[in-house]
């Protein structure tokens, strides 16, 4: 790994990602279905051929061009899961503009910070989104964000729901045949996607054109055993990397038919996925362990009444899958006929790093098994930073050599790429995860080793949530940790201290919860907020998160070494307060 983060593939070659994903298929197989859109309302679906996709993307690109979007500009996308979102992404790629999709569940504050950091001049949104029957007022959230985004000149609004919305003349544009392709250098940035880190500020993870596309397409082909004629369904939102690589770029680059799912797994009932698989004849189905666990509790009947014989490969991503959920997926959904691929990767990695290959790698439930082609994982001793040789070892998971889909920079802050990923263990890419390599050389992810928390497969930074909590006028200090949660994988436990003069009342906890929802979005809603007199700190003032994690997990049998604590009394106060909270549940 180059110490300055110089990574390049096919240097000085030329391509256009949109041409690879759209034009060549529109020419070769124009009538093949590119996108199947499954709307929130199960009676709403649309099939879009490669020919249509080409026309729509060109129109969109021409509109962007008319608004002044040029090569290397950045464009913000805040959209629901609808075909227009894919047109917008591909239109940017066609013009060589760098897109930044912001997940539609983020609040106006999070949206503002991301648009601002990315220097977006043009943003794209919709009037409203709808998920599980609930309306998401995207345009009004965007309006709120744009009050504080002076760089944004134009806002394109797609009328998805067709409701009345506020309109700012001169800034908001409505939609309007061929648009030429911009030749791009292989290393030009295709997109950035913000992700949480240990510090408060989210990072714009920036990906290249050729390396990323190759990696997304190749992993899609081999890990999902894709063959022409398959219907590939990755139900992740395009606001996350999984949606970028395995709803849009990987499948389309392979000329596949890809499903765009607007709804949630339990709407209108817990058979939604299985109904959809039967309806569209889906061959590969890719979801998160949290969704599997949420559906398991509803019982097998929802699954067994559907014909799932089209399925061949079942995938999971986002967090370790517990063996019980793995077996249910294998036995009840896959009926012991389908291969399960537990894919381990990150926003930063562009595509799968550790994963079984269907039919070729024997699985062990709960292990992401072995590296994908060309990936060289190492397990390092966390103290010495030395690679642990042989098998049956446990430590920090790093990668030895670059791979094509590796992130190229943190947008506007290359130093951060070096500090977060390349400097902690010299010569290696640091994943931020712990791992075990077992006696058979299989990898087991043991969870994040930094202060990020994986809630329902969404990575959240403790610092971000803490920053939101202290916006409350009475809040003095906050510490947020994860605790094991039966459905979400991890839940959020917030410890809060209030200013002495502030009078805590019955509504305070709700106010604190609402602040987090407003500052970050509903995905970061705390599970527990505990107002405490003080936080446990070392003599040098560092919050002892290890202790807080134990207390939040109701695992206070052995607290480990607490001799460095400045005030021992604090711990028993915390344990008592937490006990009261657990007893209330
Ligand atoms: C975790 C999602 C165990 C891990 C593609 C990683 C997993 C973080 C798995 C990245 C898996 C993802 N087994 N853990 N199969 N997949 N993770 O950036 O902690 O949203 O670092 O990318 O999710 O989350 P991100």
Automatic annotation (TrEMBL):
Location of the AMP-binding enzyme C-terminal domain: 464-542
GO biological process: acetyl-CoA biosynthetic process from acetate
Catalysed reactions listed for this entry: acetate + ATP + CoA = acetyl-CoA + AMP + diphosphate
This protein's record includes keyword Nucleotide-binding: yes
EC annotation from Swiss-Prot or TrEMBL: 6.2.1.1
Pfam families linked: AMP-binding (PF00501), AMP-binding_C (PF13193)
Single GO MF descriptor: acetate-CoA ligase activity
NCBIfam families the record matches: Ac_CoA_lig_AcsA, PRK00174.1
Keywords: ATP-binding, Ligase, Nucleotide-binding
Organism: Vitrella brassicaformis (strain CCMP3155)
Stretches assigned to the AMP-dependent synthetase/ligase domain: 23-409
Family: Belongs to the ATP-dependent AMP-binding enzyme family.
SUPFAM superfamilies given in the database record: Acetyl-CoA synthetase-like
Name of the protein in its database record: Acetyl-coenzyme A synthetase
């Amino acid at each position: 790994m180059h110490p300055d983060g110089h990574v390049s593939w096919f240097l000085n070659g030329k391509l256009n990602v949109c041409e690879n994903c759209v034009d060549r298929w529109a020419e070769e197989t124009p009538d093949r279905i590119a996108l199947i859109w499954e709307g929130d309302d199960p009676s709403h679906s649309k099939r879009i051929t490669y020919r249509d996709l080409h026309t729509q993307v060109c129109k969109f690109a021409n509109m962007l061009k008319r608004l002044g979007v040029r090569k290397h500009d950045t464009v913000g996308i805040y959209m629901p899961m609808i075909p227009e979102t894919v047109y917008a992404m591909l239109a940017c790629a066609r013009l060589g503009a760098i897109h930044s999709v912001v997940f539609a569940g983020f609040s106006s504050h999070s949206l503002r910070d991301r648009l601002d950091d990315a220097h977006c001049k043009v943003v794209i949104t919709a009037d409203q989104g709808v998920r599980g029957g609930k309306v998401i007022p995207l345009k009004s959230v965007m309006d709120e964000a744009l009050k504080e985004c002076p760089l944004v000149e134009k806002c394109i609004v797609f009328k998805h729901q067709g409701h009345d919305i506020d309109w700012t003349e001169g800034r908001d544009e409505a939609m309007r045949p061929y648009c030429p392709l911009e030749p791009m250098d292989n290393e030009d940035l295709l997109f950035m996607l913000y992700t949480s880190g240990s510090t408060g500020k989210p990072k714009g993870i920036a990906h290249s054109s050729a390396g990323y596309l190759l990696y997304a397409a190749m992993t899609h082909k081999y890990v999902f055993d894709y063959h022409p004629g398959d219907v590939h369904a990755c139900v992740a939102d395009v606001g996350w990397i999984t949606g970028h690589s395995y709803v849009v770029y990987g499948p389309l680059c392979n000329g596949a038919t890809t499903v765009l799912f607007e709804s949630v797994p339990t709407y209108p009932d817990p058979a939604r996925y299985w109904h959809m698989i039967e309806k569209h004849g889906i061959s590969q189905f890719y979801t998160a362990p949290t969704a599997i666990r949420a559906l398991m509790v509803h019982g097998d009947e929802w699954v067994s009444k559907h014909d799932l014989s089209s399925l061949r490969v079942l995938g999971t991503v986002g967090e370790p899958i517990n063996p019980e959920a793995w077996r249910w997926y294998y036995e009840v959904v896959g009926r012991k006929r389908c291969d399960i691929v537990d894919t381990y990767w990150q926003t930063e990695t562009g595509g799968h790093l550790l994963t079984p290959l269907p039919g070729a790698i024997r699985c062990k439930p709960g292990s992401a098994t072995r590296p994908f082609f060309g990936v060289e994982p190492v397990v390092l001793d966390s103290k010495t930073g030395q690679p642990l040789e042989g098998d049956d070892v446990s430590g920090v998971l790093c990668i030895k050599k670059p791979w094509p889909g590796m992130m190229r920079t943190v947008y506007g802050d290359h130093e951060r790429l070096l500090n977060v990923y390349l400097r902690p263990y010299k010569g290696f890419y640091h994943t931020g995860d712990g791992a075990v390599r077992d006696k058979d050389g299989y990898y087991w992810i043991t969870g994040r080793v930094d202060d990020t928390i994986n809630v329902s497969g969404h990575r959240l930074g403790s610092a971000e949530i803490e920053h939101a909590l202290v916006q409350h006028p009475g809040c003095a200090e906050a510490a947020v940790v994860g605790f094991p949660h039966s459905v979400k994988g991890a839940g959020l436990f917030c410890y809060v201290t209030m200013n002495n003069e502030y009078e805590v009342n019955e509504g305070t906890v709700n106010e604190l919860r609402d602040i987090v929802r407003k500052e970050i979005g509903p995905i970061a809603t705390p599970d527990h907020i505990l107002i405490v007199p003080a936080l446990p700190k070392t003599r040098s003032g560092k919050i002892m998160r290890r202790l807080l994690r134990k207390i939040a997990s109701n695992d206070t049998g052995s607290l480990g070494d607490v001799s460095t604590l400045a005030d021992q009394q604090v711990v028993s106060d915390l344990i008592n307060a937490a006990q009261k909270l657990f007893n209330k549940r």
